[in-house]
Design a protein that fits this description.
The protein is mainly alpha-helical. 79% of the residues lie in helices and 0% in strands. The longest helix is centred in the C-terminal third of the chain and has 41 residues, at 152-192.
C-alpha cells in the first residue's frame, strides 16, 4: 500500500474512533474529528455545487447567451453577507432562490404527493394495492373530525390506527436498520482494513488514560 493510501486509511480510522469517543463523553478528540468532518463536508459540498453550476452555465455561454452571466453576478452578491453596511444586498439573491425553491417544491409536491397518490390509490389490480387503498381510506377516517365518529366511521378509524401504527413502525425500523448498517460499515472498516485496526488498541489506551486523568482531577 502506498504511503498516501496508508495515511488516508489511518486518518479515516482516527476520525472514526474520535467520533466514537463521544460515547464516553464530549472530549478533545471528538471535537477535532467533528470539526474535520463538518469542514470536509462543507468543502466537498461547495465543490460539487460549483461544478454543477458550471455544467449548467457553460453550455449557455457557449451559445452566446450573455445574459446568463447575470447568474454569476447574482451569486457574487451573496458575498455581501460579510458586509455590515451592504448586508441588505444579500437579501435579494436569498429571496430569489428561496422563492424559486418554494415554488418548485410546492408544484412538485402537489403532483407527486397529492395527485399521483390519489391516482395510484384508485388503481386496484392485486391484493397489495387493495390493502393500500383500505389503509389510505381508513387512515383518512382517523383524522376526520368534522363530526363525531360513531358506528362504521368509528370502526374505520380504528382500522386506520392499525395501518398508521404499522406505517410508523416500518418507518422506524427502516431508520434503525439504516443507522445500524452505517455502524456495521464503520466497524468493518476498522477491523478489516489494514492498517486501520492498529489504531483500535491505541484508542483504547488513550481512552483509559483519559478516564484515569478525569478521575484524578475530581479527587
Amino acid at each position: 500500500m502506498a504511503l498516501t493510501d496508508t495515511m488516508t486509511v489511518l486518518l479515516a480510522a482516527a476520525i472514526t474512533l474520535g467520533l466514537f469517543s463521544y460515547l464516553w463523553k464530549e472530549n478533545l478528540a471528538f471535537r477535532i474529528a467533528e470539526h474535520a468532518y463538518v469542514g470536509a463536508a462543507a468543502g466537498y459540498g461547495a465543490l460539487i455545487l460549483a461544478e454543477s453550476a458550471w455544467r449548467l452555465l457553460s453550455p449557455q455561454l457557449a451559445k452566446g447567451l450573455w445574459y446568463w452571466y447575470l447568474t454569476v453576478l447574482l451569486g457574487l452578491v451573496y458575498l455581501f453577507f460579510f458586509s455590515g453596511e451592504y448586508f441588505w444586498l444579500y437579501r435579494y439573491p436569498t429571496a430569489i432562490v428561496i422563492g424559486a425553491d418554494i415554488g418548485t417544491f410546492v408544484a412538485r409536491s402537489i403532483k407527486t404527493q397529492f395527485l399521483e397518490q390519489i391516482r395510484a390509490t384508485t388503481i386496484v389490480t392485486n391484493v397489495n394495492e387493495a390493502i393500500v387503498v383500505i389503509g389510505v381510506i381508513t387512515g383518512l377516517f382517523y383524522f376526520y373530525s368534522t363530526m363525531e365518529r360513531k358506528g362504521v366511521l368509528e370502526g374505520a378509524a380504528k382500522v386506520g390506527i392499525y395501518f398508521l401504527m404499522a406505517g410508523f413502525g416500518a418507518s422506524f425500523g427502516v431508520t434503525v436498520m439504516a443507522r445500524v448498517s452505517l455502524l456495521i460499515g464503520r466497524l468493518r472498516f476498522l477491523y478489516f482494513t489494514d492498517p486501520a485496526y492498529y489504531l483500535i488498541p491505541v484508542a483504547i489506551i488513550l481512552l483509559i488514560i483519559g478516564i484515569f486523568m478525569e478521575r484524578s482531577k475530581k479527587t
